[in-house]
């Protein structure tokens, strides 16, 4: 009987032990930065960051003695506001991250700044005409010949359906203006010449000492044993040409690309008045 009682009590004790941890986690998620996306708060946070955090985390959050905090770092981006606040205020035991005895307002300003350097394009107010950018992408810009967005387009370039969540607006602009600056893994340009004189160009999908698989410019997969090739050239430049766009067209294209997210759209809150649902 004692054993039975112990077995029955164990889950209860375990639940009571976990409940405060779960509650703390839920509370941490619920507490939002009261300063929100206020630009003045982010600017003030930048000043505080420069005098308290930059020595370890780098002047722009790129890292140093401390970890990188900027440019869409997943761990930082996914961390609730309250958790970021607590890390700054209380530090992290067993590490070189000390607690900071700053007023709560200044800590929230730091949180605002950290959020700003991790903002992806979808979080930013990117100017431009999204509809015009989409028309350009699918039409005269010829972007969809290589890139796909939500099932429309080609395969020779990276799928851009979630680009607004993956990159900042600044990074998207840099990629458009200088496609060769950063080449996405799996999309490096390669050209080969076979021993019978055929030339094939495309992106290398699989490459080993003995064989190479190429997605060619027609969208076909070609597999070659390297012993059957006379020449293999790995180009340092991107297959993507630098687009010839006006400033307005570039901005419209950026607005369209920055809006791309695979997350389901947030449904508007419905108000129920006198038994009827009304959209706000």
User: What's the helical proportion of residues?
Assistant: 25-40%
Strand content: 15-25%
Q: Looking across the biggest beta sheet, what order are the strands in?
A: 6-5-4-3-7
Q: How many domains in all?
A: 3
Uncertain spans:
1-21
Largest sheet: 5 strands, antiparallel
Number of strands: 9
Gyration radius over CA = 26 Å
CATH topology of the largest domain: Cytochrome Bc1 Complex, Chain D, domain 2
In N-to-C order, the SSE pattern is HHHHHHHEEHHEEEEEHEE
Mind telling me which CATH architecture of the largest domain this is? Orthogonal Bundle
What structural category characterises the helix and strand content? alpha+beta
Q: What's the end-to-end separation, in Å?
A: 60 Å
- Output the CATH homologous superfamily of the largest domain: Cytochrome c-like domain
Mean pLDDT: 85
Q: Name the CATH class of the largest domain.
A: Mainly Alpha
Shape: elongated
The number of distinct helices, counting runs of at least 4 residues, comes to 10
């Amino acid at each position: 009987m004692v054993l039975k009682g112990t077995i029955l009590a164990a889950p209860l004790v375990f639940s009571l032990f976990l409940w405060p941890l779960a509650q703390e986690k839920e509370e941490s998620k619920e507490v939002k930065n009261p300063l929100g996306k206020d630009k003045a708060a982010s600017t003030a946070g930048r000043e505080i960051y420069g005098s308290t955090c930059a020595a370890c985390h780098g002047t722009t959050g790129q890292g140093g003695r401390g970890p990188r905090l900027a440019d869409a770092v997943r761990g930082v981006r996914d961390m609730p506001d309250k958790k970021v606040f607590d890390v700054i205020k209380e530090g992290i035991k067993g590490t070189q991250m000390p607690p900071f005895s700053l007023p709560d307002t200044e800590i929230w300003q730091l949180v605002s700044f950290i959020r700003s350097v991790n903002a992806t394009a979808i979080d930013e107010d990117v100017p431009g005409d999204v509809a015009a950018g989409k028309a350009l992408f699918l039409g005269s810009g010829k972007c969809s010949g290589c890139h796909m967005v939500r099932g429309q387009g080609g395969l020779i370039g990276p799928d851009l359906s979630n680009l607004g969540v993956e990159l900042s607006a600044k990074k998207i602009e840099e990629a458009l203006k200088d496609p060769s600056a950063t080449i996405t893994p799996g999309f490096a340009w390669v050209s080969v010449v076979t021993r019978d004189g055929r030339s094939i160009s495309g992106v290398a999908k699989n490459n080993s000492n003995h064989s190479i698989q190429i997605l060619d410019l027609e969208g076909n997969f070609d597999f070659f044993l390297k012993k059957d090739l006379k020449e293999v050239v790995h180009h340092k430049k991107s297959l993507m040409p630098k687009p010839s766009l006006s400033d307005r067209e570039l901005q419209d294209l950026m607005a369209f690309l920055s809006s791309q997210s695979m997350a389901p759209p947030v449904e508007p809150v419905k108000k129920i008045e006198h038994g009827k649902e009304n959209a706000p």
